[in-house]
Amino acid sequence: MKREILITSDGSTTIHLPDWNEQYHSKHGAIQEAYHVFIKAGFDKAKETLLSATNSNLSILEIGFGTGLNAFITFLEAQKHAFYIDYVGVEAYPVEGKEIQKLNYVGELNAANFRDIFNKMHQVSWNEKHQISEDFSLQKRKQFFENIKDNNVFDLIYFDAFGATNQPELWTETIFKKMYTALKSDGVLVTYSAKGSVRRAMQAVGFAVERLTGPPGKREMLRAVKKE
């Protein structure tokens, strides 16, 4: 499938798949979307509700590791706080190194001091846990989403799969049941999608779901919490 590097509206890059008319991130702003959907609505929510005096760790599962943007921004956010991030990114089709080199996230995020961290995230081997920094571990799993079998492991899920128009099988009750099982009680799942069918699939497996204001270019997004 043809792939192109695209500059989005906020100046940050993404990968465009013209055959699908699909991008790895919003064409209205890759970095803006990542912060709005995954940090503001997800990371900050989990930090508020799940961190405490007796728990200073957050475990995060990303569905669609892709370009590593969400992982890198999460690392940058974690530097502002005194807690540990255990990050797992699942990706069936890893992005090639030559594409990673064309992405401008380090510069656009004013994160030149952490360029080595971004590079390390892409250079470490798959299917093994690596210590990226003193307070951030990363395991990249080369895995199809339907094969995820984690149980009561994660505090937060970034659900960043390609859209339901092109991959409807990734937005079903079957997949969201796996997400529900993978989360700890009161765990949070966030996604850019706001489709009614996605919301109903989440609710059918037990999630409490709310609509939130979406990132630039989208009216709404979804946040789900595991309630038992």
Structure description:
The chain is α/β, with parallel strands linked by helices. It has a single domain, classed as Rossmann fold (3-Layer(aba) Sandwich), CATH 3.40.50. 29% of the residues lie in helices and 29% in strands. The protein has helices spanning 30-50, 69-78, 97-100, 105-108, 115-123, 173-182, 196-204; strands at 4-7, 13-17, 22-23, 57-63, 84-90, 129-133, 136-141, 154-159, 183-191, 207-213, 220-226. A hairpin with a 6-residue loop joins strand 10 and strand 11 (220-226). The radius of gyration is 16 Å and the shape is globular.
Defining key terms:
single chain, 228 residues, alpha/beta, Rossmann fold, eight-stranded mixed β-sheet, 7 helices, 29% helix, globular
